[in-house]
Amino acid sequence: MAEFRSTRVNSAPAAETLSGTIGGRFLIVERLGKGGMGEVYRAEDTKLKRSVALKRLGPHLRSDTAYRLRFLEEAERASRLSDSHVAAVHDVLEERGEIFLVMEYVEGENLRNRLAWNSSSRWPCSAQRLSWQPTKAESFIATSSPRTSC
């Protein structure tokens, strides 16, 4: 069963850290990253003996019906993609009021490090290349999802 630990730093609001097991088979190993929309953890699939990435919505969005729906739609769209540049979505789990995307774990550097500034340029070279090369995933999502305003 998943355990949730709250840690309080100074007077900041409590932050939940995921630990234990999700869905009876995904053992949480470490948190890989956290952003404005959610968190991603590396976990061991104890049944298939492989590493996976577990993605979940951030605490402030978990009870928002619209964001939960968006999260599920993202999983559905991404699960239809099969490309070496896109992490595969293996499954969607709901446990203790949360939704988790079970995704392919890809070893390597994160996007922040990948886009690190090149010492000989004012622009990160990777960002220059990426800005001119939309991915198949972006093209697929742009053409298969309704436009929504931010």
How would you describe what is shown here?
It contains four helices and seven strands, in the order βββββαββααα. It is α+β, with helices and mostly antiparallel strands and 150 residues long. The chain has a seven-stranded antiparallel β-sheet, with helices on one face. Residues 1-15 and 145-150 have low confidence and may be disordered.
Number of strands: 7
- Can you give the helix content as a percent range? 10-25%
Order of helices and strands: EEEEEHEEHHH
Report the β-strand fraction as a percent range: 35-45%
Strand order of the largest sheet: 1-2-3-4-5-7-6
Task: Fill in the keyword field for this structure.
2 domains; disordered N terminus; 7-stranded antiparallel sheet; alpha+beta; Phosphorylase Kinase, domain 1; disordered C terminus; 4 helices
SSE order and pairing:
Layout: E1 2-7, E2 15-22, E3 26-34, E4 38-45, E5 50-57, H1 65-79, E6 89-95, E7 98-104, H2 111-114, H3 125-132, H4 136-144
Antiparallel strand pairs: 1-2, 2-3, 3-4, 4-5, 5-7, 6-7
Task: Give a brief outline of the structure.
This protein has helices at 65-79, 111-114, 125-132, 136-144; strands at 2-7, 15-22, 26-34, 38-45, 50-57, 89-95, 98-104. The chain is of the alpha+beta class.
